[in-house]
C-alpha cells in the first residue's frame, strides 16, 4: 500500500530565489541581533501607590449632626418644661431617641474595634484623654461660675456631659465580648434590666447609664449597611410622619404624669420611688419605643452631601463645648428673663441653640480644640518595631 502524501525524509526542497524587495522586507521585520541590544539593569521597583482614603458616608455625618442639634435643643428646653406643657412634650420626645440614635451610630462604627495597638491608642487619645481634660475643665468651670470653690475633681464621678465618654470607653473595650456571644442583644438587654433594679450600683463612672444604654451600642455593633437602607426609602419616610406625630401627642399627655428622669437612664427604679419591677418593664418598653423613633429619625436623614455634612465630623466638639454654655445659662440665671417663657421666646431660644451647636462643630473650632479632642501623644506610646520596619522598607 502506498502513501498518498509523499515522504521526503531528510531531503530539503530548495526555495525559490528571493527578490530584492523580499530581502528588504525581511531585513526590516527581522529583530536586531542579540549582540546589538545593550544590556540594561532592571528598573527600580516602584512603591505601590497609597490606597485612596475611604470616603465618609454622608448619611451618617448628617445623622450625627442632626442628633447633636437635638441634644443642644433638648438642653435649651429643659428649664422651660415647668411653665410649658408643649416644651415638656418636645423635651420628652427628643430625649426618647436622640441619645439612642447617637449611641447606635457609635456602635456601628465600633464594629472593627479590637485590641490592636493602634486602635487602643486611638481609644486613649480620642476618648480617655478628652474625658480627663473636660472633666477637669468642667470642675473648674463649676467652681468659678457656680461660686462653689469646694467642688472636687473626681474622675470616678463624671459631671454632666462627660458620662458619654466614660460609657463609650467601656463599651468599646467590651466590643470583642459582644462579637463572640451567641445572643448579644438579648444579653445586653438583660444587663440593662438588671441595672435598672439595682440601686446599689452607685454613681461611680455613671455605671447606671453605661449599663442601661448598653443595648443600643450592642445593637449598633450588630447592624449592617443594609439594615439602615430598610428605613431610607419613601415609604418609611411617609410612615414616620404619623408615628412621630403620635409620639408627640402621647408625650403631651404624659408630660405632667410621667417622671422624665426615666429617659436619662441614670437611676434604678427604686431611686425614682417606683417599685423595683417597674425598672424591668420601663427598660424594655423604652428600648422598643426608642427603636421606633430612631427608625423614624433615620428615615428623614438625607443621604446626599449637604452644607451640614462636614459638620458631622465635629459633633463631639459641639457636644462637649456646648456644655459650658448650657450649664452657664443656669448658673448665671439667663432663664430669669420673662420673654424666654413665651412661645416666641421658646422659638428664638431653639434657633439660638441650633446656631450655637452648629458653630461649635465647624472646622475652625475643631482646629482650635484639636489638642484636647484628638491629641497626637506619640511620645506616650512605645514604638512599634514591626510597623517601623515596614515603613523603612
What does this structure look like?
It is a single chain. By secondary structure, the chain is mainly α. The protein has one domain (58-378). Helix content is 59%, strand content 0%. The chain has 16 helices and no strands. The chain has helices spanning 20-29, 58-77, 85-108, 117-145, 163-173, 175-180, 184-196, 207-212, 214-222, 225-229, 234-254, 276-299, 315-331, 343-360, 363-373, 385-392. Helix 3 (85-108) crosses helix 11 (234-254) and helix 3 (85-108) crosses helix 12 (276-299). The longest helix is centred in the middle third of the chain and has 29 residues, at 117-145. The radius of gyration is 33 Å and the shape is globular. It starts with 19 loop residues before the first helix and ends with a helix.
Give me some keywords for this one.
59% helix; 16 helices; mainly alpha; acyltransferase activity; disordered N terminus; 393 residues
Give a topology summary.
Blueprint: H1 20-29, H2 58-77, H3 85-108, H4 117-145, H5 163-173, H6 175-180, H7 184-196, H8 207-212, H9 214-222, H10 225-229, H11 234-254, H12 276-299, H13 315-331, H14 343-360, H15 363-373, H16 385-392
Brief account:
With 393 residues, the chain is mainly alpha-helical. The chain is 59% helix and 0% strand.
Distance between the termini: 74 Å
**Class from helix and strand fractions:** mainly alpha
Helix content: 55-70%
| Rg result | 33 Å
Strand residue percentage: under 5%
- The structural domain count equals 1
- The helix tally amounts to 16
Question: What is the residue-averaged pLDDT?
Answer: 86
Largest sheet: none
Basic shape: globular
Let me know the number of strands: 0
Spans where pLDDT lies below 50 across 5 or more residues: 1-51
